[in-house]
Amino acid sequence: MLESVLGAINLGTIVLDHARRVVVWNHWMSQYSDLPADSVVGQDFFALFPELNGKRIDSAVRQALRDNFPSVLSQTLHKAPFALFANDAARAAGERMQQAVAVTPLDVPGLARHCLIQITDVSVAVTRERLLRDQALELRSQTFSDGLTGIANRRHFDVAMEKEMRRAKRSGTPLSLLMIDIDSFKPYNDHYGHQQGDDTLIKVAHALAAMLQRPADLIARYGGEEFAVILPEMTPDHSQVLAEKMRERIAALGIPHAKAELTGYVTVSIGLATHALEHPSDIAVLLGEADRALYMAKGAGRNRVVRFSAV
C-alpha cells in the first residue's frame, strides 16, 4: 500500500536514514532523474550526488538529522538543485526542471532519525511568473516611453526629475536641464506633411539620445517637437559644451527644411539651466529657467544654445 501511495504522489519523495543512505526513492524520482530505485536505495545519497556536497541541500539534511530542524530551500536561490528533466529533449538540452525543495526530519519509532526530501516541479509556475514579469516590464515600458520616438515620455521625465532633484539637494551636486525645441517645426509640418514630420522627430530624438553616455542621463519628449534632457551631476560649463554638440549634431543631419529662413535644414534651439549650491532651485524654478533660456535662444535667431543667468 505504501509503495502504491508513493508511486501515485506527483512529487519527488526521498527518505534518508541517519547515515544519509537512501531508504525511499519513489517512482516520480525514477521517472525524472532516469535513475531506477534499485540502483539508488541503500546508497549514500551524497556519494551518489557529489555535486550536492557543500550546497544548501547538504546543510538542510544535516540540520534535519542532527537538530530536528525542517528547511525549505529558496526557489529563487536554488532553482534546480537536482538533475531532473521533464523529458528526453530537456535532458539533451540540459534544461533542468525548476524545483521547490523541502527537507523535513522524521522520527521513526525504534529507529534513529530519518529525513524526508520533497521535490515539487514548479516549472509551470516559474514560466507563468516570468511571463507576468515580462508583461509587467512591457507595460511599464509602454507607460514610460513615448509611442512615436521610443525615448522617455513626459511621465517618465517627471518621475526622473523629481528623483534627481532630491538626490542633487541631498548630495549637494549640480543638476542641469536642457530644453530643446526643433526650430520652425509647424511650418515644416505644413510644408512636408505630418508623416515626414514624425520621421524627423524620430531622427532628431535618436540623434540626441545617442549623445548621452552616462546611465543617469535622460532625454524625454516633453511636448510636440520639444525635448528635455536631465543631466545629473553636470556643471553649467560641461552642460553647455554638451548642448553645443547636440545642436551641431542635429545640424549635421542635414535634414532639408525649405521653410527655415536662415539655414535651409532642420536645426534646434536649446535652453540650459542648472541647480547648484550657489544657485539653488526647485523643479518648477529649474524648468522655468530652462524654458526662459530656450525662449531667448529662439528670440536671438534660433539654432543656438542659451544658458540661463539670474544676473
From TrEMBL:
<dbReference type="InterPro" id="IPR050469">
    <property type="entry name" value="Diguanylate_Cyclase"/>
</dbReference>
<feature type="domain" description="PAS">
    <location>
        <begin position="1"/>
        <end position="68"/>
    </location>
</feature>
<dbReference type="InterPro" id="IPR029787">
    <property type="entry name" value="Nucleotide_cyclase"/>
</dbReference>
<dbReference type="Pfam" id="PF00990">
    <property type="entry name" value="GGDEF"/>
</dbReference>
<protein>
    <recommendedName>
        <fullName>diguanylate cyclase</fullName>
        <ecNumber>2.7.7.65</ecNumber>
    </recommendedName>
</protein>
<dbReference type="InterPro" id="IPR035965">
    <property type="entry name" value="PAS-like_dom_sf"/>
</dbReference>
<feature type="domain" description="GGDEF">
    <location>
        <begin position="173"/>
        <end position="310"/>
    </location>
</feature>
<dbReference type="InterPro" id="IPR000014">
    <property type="entry name" value="PAS"/>
</dbReference>
<dbReference type="InterPro" id="IPR000160">
    <property type="entry name" value="GGDEF_dom"/>
</dbReference>
<dbReference type="InterPro" id="IPR043128">
    <property type="entry name" value="Rev_trsase/Diguanyl_cyclase"/>
</dbReference>
